[in-house]
Design a protein that fits this description.
Blueprint: H1 3-33, E1 50-55, E2 58-65, H2 68-73, E3 85-95, E4 108-114, E5 117-125, E6 146-153, H3 156-159, E7 168-170
Parallel strand pairs: 2-3
Antiparallel strand pairs: 1-2, 1-7, 3-6, 4-5, 4-6
Length: 172
């Protein structure tokens, strides 16, 4: 073989090795982060954690908001919420946590919970008028300290007979 043949052979070997490495990395990425996989990376679309919650005699499919970022975003920016679904805000310790309707386009019921019992209900919190300044938005507060807040579509509490004292259970 001539020197040019060895040079061509070395280039082909390098190309094949690089192609195999690239394909291996792509397959590993698909296996780790592909469709149906939940990721905690700070970029890309993340799948919310969904669970079932029983409140009184009603069942609700919920998303959990248990980090500061998830609680800050809440349901803001959504156009609607599926029937019999909601978001459960979980706090590390009981407190009087204020909620507002910033960025919402549909009314909500806010069900305030402490030690797995409903302690307060705010029904049909209204959507703010377009152009309302943040400082002019009403802040909804529970009557007493809570460790969870369930947000559901406005009318859910009345439609399902939710009342103070009802038991709240989150399915594992």
């Amino acid at each position: 073989m001539t020197n040019s043949s060895y040079g061509t052979l070395n280039l082909v070997k390098k190309f094949v090795i690089q192609a195999v490495l690239l394909i291996s990395v792509a397959l590993a990425a698909i296996a780790l982060f592909g469709p149906g996989r939940q990721t905690s990376l700070p970029f890309g679309q993340q799948t919310p954690e969904n669970k079932n919650l029983k409140i009184g005699t009603s069942n609700v499919k919920i998303e959990i908001a248990d980090s500061a970022e998830e609680r800050r975003k809440g349901l803001g920016g959504r156009q609607s919420l599926a029937t019999d679904s909601g978001m459960l805000f979980i706090f590390e310790k009981p407190g009087k946590y204020g909620f507002w309707m910033k960025g919402l386009s549909f009314p909500l019921d806010m069900i305030w919970v402490r030690d797995k019992k409903v302690v307060d209900v705010i029904k049909n919190a209204l959507v703010p008028e377009t152009g309302t300044k943040d400082e002019d938005l009403p802040i909804y507060m529970p009557r007493e300290e809570v460790d969870m807040v369930l947000e559901v579509n406005g009318g859910f509490a009345d439609g399902n007979g939710i009342k103070i004292g009802d038991i709240v259970e989150v399915a594992p």
